[in-house]
Design brief:
Elements: E1 12-16, H1 33-48, E2 51-55, H2 75-82, E3 86-89, H3 96-101, E4 107-110, H4 117-120, H5 131-152, E5 157-160, E6 185-187, H6 189-202, E7 209-213, H7 222-228, E8 234-237, H8 242-248, E9 252-253, H9 263-276, E10 279-282, E11 285-289, E12 298-302, E13 305-306, E14 311-315, H10 317-328, E15 332-336, H11 349-365, E16 368-372, H12 374-382, E17 391-392, H13 396-403, H14 409-415
Parallel strand pairs: 1-2, 1-5, 2-4, 3-4, 5-6, 7-8, 7-15, 8-10, 9-13, 15-16, 16-17
Antiparallel strand pairs: 11-12, 11-14
Helix pairs in contact: 1-2, 8-9, 10-11
């Protein structure tokens, strides 16, 4: 069922949202992006004349009640954003009374789902790889089903709008969908947009298609890189992960970040790119620092000739120029991960230039651009370019798994 085609009048909808928002030490929300992202779905339920139950996790309490991770701290923010006084249920697993009392046009927020170990469905306090663990895991699977069934009993429609957890098979993101028929479960507007954006780059991409993959580690992005080799025309590899590729070819990388055990994989990727006719572009020169700090001495070295006491910290002018040319000739662009130590102002230039170039390709050349992953999203926001790219993904891990070619349980549960 498509959310746009459903009329919530007279229905109670339980909506899985991602309200895992950052809080300061006094429990005040410091960034409301995720709350705002859920509003189109939540407002549709209320505007149609439905009653709204919202459920989310916050942080990682691992099945224990931790007051500093209580969703009671955000009720005020959600109420203000929705324009409705939101009620609060102190116990997600025992909220029958609050759910039953909910009237048309009213909204209820359940307490942190992860106070219950059943939400994630992982046994607590048993060591992995032991016979006890296997028994506890089977028992926990049953308890997870019971917990999901309890959540489902509060409402007659289920909406999943939490893309950030779509790659997890949790009680509230996937298991719960089994208790609703196909006409009473659906993706929310945010989830629909995320799924469409990923399809635009993975299934319907216009060529030339360029992927820019940065960040610190090859290990976290290897699956993504391998899946993309069959789809892209250009693969730009920047950031800390690039040094593993340089060292694998015999380059000198000084103190730069790298993963020795992944050097054979890096060589395999390069060979596969060559075989598939993919233009793999690595940095040619790097801005290096003596220390890992903003005010350290800086110098540019060829990427494979970094002296022992220096560390690669940002892509150089020369590398950026080469990458700009590739990006501006592209019709589809996927960007995940910074190309330098973006959090230090003096080493953020390369990432900023990538952000500006992706925006330029989108605005001036009509390219489709998908930006995802915490630091890339922070970069487009920092330079005020979020509305100049085609889509900014809110779910870093979920987006990466989808691009790796994995099925997202949160999406599959609705579509089956």
């Amino acid at each position: 069922m498509k959310i746009n085609d459903f009329n919530f009048a007279g229905h109670k909808a339980i909506v899985r949202v991602d309200f895992n928002v950052p809080l300061d030490e006094n429990g005040h929300v410091t960034d409301e992006t995720r709350i705002r992202g859920a509003l189109p779905t939540l407002k549709k339920v209320l505007a149609d004349g439905g009653a709204l139950i919202m459920m989310s996790h916050m942080g990682k309490p691992k099945g224990k009640v931790k007051p500093e991770l209580s969703l009671s701290q955000i009720v005020k923010n959600v109420s203000n954003a929705l324009g409705v006084e939101v009620k609060f249920a102190k116990d997600a697993g025992n909220a029958e009374a609050e759910a039953a009392a909910l009237k048309t046009g009213e909204a209820l927020l359940l307490e942190n789902l992860r106070y219950y170990p059943e939400e994630e469905g992982k046994p607590v306090g048993v060591e992995k790889g032991t016979p006890e663990f296997d028994a506890a895991k089977a028992e926990m699977k049953d308890r997870q089903k019971d917990f999901a069934k309890k959540l489902a009993s509060y409402a007659d429609v289920y909406v999943n709008d939490a893309f950030g957890t779509a790659h997890r098979k949790h009680a509230s993101t996937a298991v719960i969908a089994d208790y609703f028929d196909a006409d009473h479960k659906m993706l929310g507007f945010l989830m629909e947009k995320e799924v469409t954006a990923i399809d635009n780059v993975l299934k319907n991409a216009q060529h030339p298609f360029t992927a820019i993959i940065g960040g610190s580690k090859v290990s976290s992005k290897l699956g993504v890189i391998k899946n993309l080799l069959d789809k892209v025309d250009n693969l730009i590899i920047g950031g800390g992960m690039g040094y593993t590729f340089i060292k694998a070819q015999g380059g000198k990388i000084g103190k730069s970040l790298h993963e020795d055990d992944l050097m054979p994989e890096a060589l395999n990727v390069m060979a596969a790119a060559k075989e598939k006719g993919v233009n793999l572009s690595l940095s040619v020169a790097t801005v290096c620092g003596k220390e890992f700090s903003n005010d350290t001495e800086r110098q540019v070295f060829p990427i494979d000739q970094i002296p022992d006491e220096w560390e690669g910290m940002d892509a150089s002018e020369e590398s950026i120029e080469a990458w700009k040319k590739i990006i501006l000739e592209s019709k589809t662009i996927l960007w995940n991960g910074p190309v330098g130590v973006f959090e230090l102002e003096n080493f953020a230039k390369g990432t900023g230039e990538i952000a500006k170039t992706v925006a330029q390709a989108t605005q001036e050349n009509g390219a489709y651009s998908l930006v995802g992953g915490g630091d890339s999203v922070a970069a487009v926001n920092k330079f005020g370019l979020a509305d100049k790219v085609s889509y900014v993904s809110t779910g870093g891990g979920a987006m990466l798994e989808a691009i790796e070619g994995k099925v997202l349980p949160g999406v599959a549960a609705i579509q089956k």
